[in-house]
Amino acid sequence: MVTARAPATSANLGSGFDTFGVALSHPADTVSVERAAETTIRVRGAGADFIPTDPEKNVVGAVAEALDAPAHIHIDKGVRPSSGLGSSAASAAAAAVALNELYDRGYSRHDLVPVAAEGEAVVSGEAHADNVAPALLGGFTIVRSDDGATSVDADLALVACLPEVVVSTRDARGVVPDSVSMTDHVETVGNAATLTAGMCRSDPELVGRGLDDPVVTPARAKLITGYEGVREAALAAGATGVTVSGAGPSVLAVCEPGRKRAVASAMVEGFADAGVGARAYQTAVGDGATVL
Ligand SMILES: Nc1ncnc2c1ncn2[C@@H]1O[C@H](COP(=O)(O)OP(=O)(O)OP(=O)(O)O)[C@@H](O)[C@H]1O
Ligand SMILES: N[C@@H](CCO)C(=O)O
Questions:
Q1: What's an example GO BP annotation here (predicted)?
Q2: At 128, is the pLDDT very low, low, confident or very high (cuts 50, 70, 90)?
Q3: How many angstroms is it from 276 CA to the middle of ligand 2?
Q4: Which of the ligands is closest to the CA of residue 13?
Q5: Is residue 291, in this structure, part of any structural domain at all?
Q6: CA-CA distance, 112 to 102, in Å (whole number)?
Q7: Residue 209 in domain
């Protein structure tokens, strides 16, 4: 048996819609695999009741198929599905790494990015790599349309606040504008470049400023009850920047390490003020998938 762990991730980071991602030090999914004639799947943990065990419908089934690696697969969910924290990507990345080891396929983590993205296609219809790339490679990642991914290590404190509201990725993609003005384009490129420089320097001020996004985030924020209040509360508590995590509903804040507790409390209280329960993960930029 081989067991692997892969982290939750936060895609987009505001200015990097469908391009940027970051691995979180926790929470994470754990996946164990044993050789078998046909793939079977068992799921336990956070949100397990909402995750299909049919290999045609679970992301790990598509990963086993893509690697020609049938297995009994046990998933222990640490990342709740439909959280905006890359839940399906964490399972896909952990399964890809575990099956690669079990069947001695010899693929690198970079080779496994398009394999794990095949799993993502099962749930969203598109092989997005902006969650599986950080889940596999760790750190801050940039994915390009040619399937290539670049990763940079960063040392950065983060808070991810997960409210008890549901935002479907389909709805969140439905509100993305079809086009952008040149003014918004220039602002977005400037913010994305600032964020990238900030990640390379592990600088929370630069990264926080680079999260700003005039195009996608304002449209999506309307789908998250309490978002504006939570954002303001996090900034007042010392966050250097706040944005929607992935397709939502989680909200991501960047801060100095010493401000994590205060920012986490402020965000949970911000959601409470809007009548929404929430939990906050005091986390950081973390490593990619590992065999345990
Ligand atoms: N192994 C799996 N783990 C989690 N969800 C899975 C898995 N296999 C299939 N799914 C389905 O995928 C959907 C959730 O995946 P999705 O990646 O959208 O979650 P997310 O955490 O919100 O990610 P994102 O950060 O991309 O918004 C649910 O419909 C769930 O049933
Ligand atoms: N980049 C994707 C991540 C969710 O799969 C989005 O924001 O829709």
A1: threonine biosynthetic process
A2: confident
A3: 23
A4: 2
A5: no
A6: 14
A7: yes
Q: Which residues line ligand 2 (CB under 6 A)?
A: 11-12, 18, 124, 128, 130-131, 169, 172-173, 246-247
CATH number at residue 83: 3.30.230.10
Whether residue 145 is found in the same domain as residue 163: no
pLDDT, tens digit (0-9, with 9 covering 90-100), for 135-174:
999 999 999 877 689 999 999 999 999 999 988 888 899 9
Q: In 3-state terms, what secondary structure has residue 69?
A: coil
Q: Whose CA is nearest to atom 27 of ligand 1?
A: 84
Per the prediction, the chain carries an average pLDDT of 96
Q: Which of 96, 117, 152 is the last residue of a domain?
A: 152
Is 229 annotated to bind ligand? no
Q: What is the pLDDT of residue 153?
A: 97
Asked if residue 86 has its Cβ within 6 Å of ligand 1, the reply is yes
Rounded distance between C-alpha atoms, residue 103 and residue 67, angstroms: 9
**CATH, residue 169:** 3.30.70.890
Taking the centre of ligand 2 as the mean of its atom positions, its distance from the CA of residue 68, in whole angstroms, is 27
Q: Give the torsion sign (CA, 198, 204, 210, 215).
A: positive
Across the range 2-18, mean pLDDT stands at 98
- Return the ligand number nearest the Cα of 250: 1
Domain range for 278:
157-284
Asked whether residue 289 is domain-assigned, the answer is no
**Across 177-204, average pLDDT:** 98
68 Cβ contact partners less than 8 Å away, ≥ 6 residues apart = 103
- Active-site residues: which are they? 120, 169
